[in-house]
Amino acid sequence: MKNRTKKRCWGTTDAHFLKPSPHREAAEHRHLEDSPSPRPSPAGRGRIIVRWFDTAEHAGGSGDQCANQLLRISHQKGGCDLESVWKSPIQSISTLQHFNASTLQRHSGCRSGFTLIELLVVIAIIAIVAAMLLPVLHAAQQRALATRCLSNEKQVTLAWLTYANDNQDGLVYNRGLGGQPASWGENPLKDPNLQSGGSLAQWCPGNIQQLSCAIHYQEWIEAGLLYPYNQNIDIYLCPADKTTIPRGSSIVHEPSLRTYSMNCWIQPMDHSGNTAGQAWLNISGYRAYTKLSNMLQPGPCQTWVICEEAPNSIDDAFFAVNPTTPTIWYNSPACLHGHGSEIAFADGHAEHRNWTDGNMINDINPGTAPGENVPYQATSGDLAWFISISTAPGR
Hints:
about 400 residues, 5-stranded mixed β-sheet
């Protein structure tokens, strides 16, 4: 007896279908000839694909083999396009589970792509996301620079504390322009007056705005009394400070190597010699700190040691504050972190201060050179606060 349930399958040698029964082939040809269009009807296409999948699903053929066979049958049975075949109701048949559109497109020569509208939409979305992220990234970068600045100030302050511990509690000498060598063109590393115990020894000598000093300023930092405690030039500069020195020069534009200056009320020596405690401009009635142990008012945690100085104000490493004239910024803090500065205190901690004095922030001083003697803004309490953490009344 003939086996009427015998399935068709893939050929094992030539990868073609075995011939179906002649009767079924003839029936399918008659159906195609009776169709009003040269393309098979949806029902006809369905029978074509059903016959193909009826054969392929039991053969275990790969997706590539299935696609090749479907293309061959499609062209043989009236040239129906693959898109119409794919969209036919036959796609609901479970035998399509091993067949996908991408395989069909790959073998049919079709290529998918974006339309112009789609590309413009994608570009617009990217632009919107970038516009949202850029301010966030900029703010994160500014916070990172401020953090590094705080770290630098802490390291300088730690060197300052270590020096005091090594010198019977005595604070390092802090001199202004009146306590500098006579020649800015000298090699400060060979000047005996700048060595420990010398008549001009100090924490950081030199004048950053003098041309002959500015072009060799690293040597002046190295000649300072604090440099042996931390031999890293970078800790003297705020990473946000991109200014050049000397200020206003049309000949030399050296990158600045120092941003930080010291409170003029800490071991002030705006002169030559080693007479300690001589206040700037011989101001009396306020405390000049010569030892850690006498920093009782307002106290180490409320007395600043190192602060960023504004590029238009900085020259020596001596930050001038005059409590008898509470309306003038003789030197100005640098606003390199928004409208704020980093300040390090005598107990070793450092903190950020946001300023509100518009005159100081914007260097509005029509009466004198830029960066000097800036009149305070009466509606701001910045200068009064800064004086209160610089010194205290008394002797």
